[in-house]
Amino acid sequence: MMIGQKPTDDHDIIARVFRIKVQKLVALLTKGHAFGESQCFMYSMEWQKRALPHVHLLQELKEKLRPDQIDDVISAELSDPEVD
Fold first, then answer.
1. Contact, 52 vs 8, CB < 8 A?
2. What's the whole-model pTM score?
3. pLDDT digits (tens, 9 = 90+) for 48-71
């Protein structure tokens, strides 16, 4: 990267790093069984107008999650503005 450039100016590097991160995520979900054993998955990669990529990922599990398991998989918390 040259002096004065922003990270979004190097599209080739962004694309390569993003692809590696998507591959790691897919491996974690499918081979690592993060949510359980996977039956199938698919994803689509898109680029936004600001030249940043994002991915839509769909995974079907062999055993469906029961309602009482949802809180173990999905959580959210508000960050502390002084710490984060």
1. yes
2. 0.71
3. 877 688 999 999 999 988 888 888
